[in-house]
Amino acid sequence: MESTVKYIRKQTGNFVPEIGIILGSGLGDFADEFKSIAIPYNEIPNFETSKVEGHKGRLVFAQIEGKNTVMMQGRYHFYEGYSMQTVTYPVKVMKKLGIKTLIITNAAGAVSGDYKPGELMFITDHINFMGTNPLIGKNDDKLGTRFPDMSEIYNKELIEIGVKSAQKLSIDYQKGVYAGTTGPSYETPAEINMFRHLGANAVGMSTVPEAIVANYCGIKVLGISCLTNYASGVTDTPLNHQEVIETANRVKENFKNLLVEILSTLD
Ligand code: HPA
Questions:
Q1: How far apart are CA 126 and CA 104, in angstroms?
Q2: pTM score, two decimals?
Q3: Which residue's alpha carbon is at the smallest distance from atom 10 of ligand 1?
Q4: Does ligand 1 have an atom closer than 6 angstroms to the CB of 23?
Q5: SS3 of residue 5 by DSSP
Q6: Residue-wise pLDDT tens digits, 149-173
């Protein structure tokens, strides 16, 4: 951790980020719009190279609306074969760099019929269905406690700021529960039926590990899903990654405007 942070600080000088943003599918180029310092993951000691299509894999430091941010352009997914430690390491690094707030974005499938592709969903809570937990292993007491409370991972005030921002921009939004699976296969209709019964509104293959670790180390979390498709069995249409990317691209401008509005409102 020391060598990671030291390397990053050498590039960023006295720029201290207050807000971290994990850019999910389709949102990656948000970071390109701001004058910034970009550091590829493969140059950072102890970071691994992220390989997912459409993701650049770098940390981007920029001031947006007067806020110092660090953005992850591309994230590590558990389904790529990375360990939970690798998936969540950047969150711990961002904590060390100084962030107090983390905005986590993702693409997700809509589990209930009244949630529609193209809508943005503020995550109110999650269900960890990944069968593991990123905090398993020796605890670092300097970061957080052994048995951390998870009763409000997604900060209510941040959700309120998100909602107000969406309303101001007339962007369609929902609030709901995100179920995290490992992927990479999409779910079966029976699994989606189960998730619906369990109280989930959206399903996706990321976010849960990062949110757990952020909350554990005292970072306030705002989670926003871009609903890119009806989840398996909600309609008769088979799922494919192309549809996910297409919807994410269609919603991108709204999503970017929302992020900027949220950043301008945060104190
Ligand atoms: N299921 C899981 N992950 C996803 C989906 C989905 O339907 N859409 C986008 N990411």
A1: 13
A2: 0.96
A3: 108
A4: no
A5: helix
A6: 999 999 999 999 999 999 999 999 9
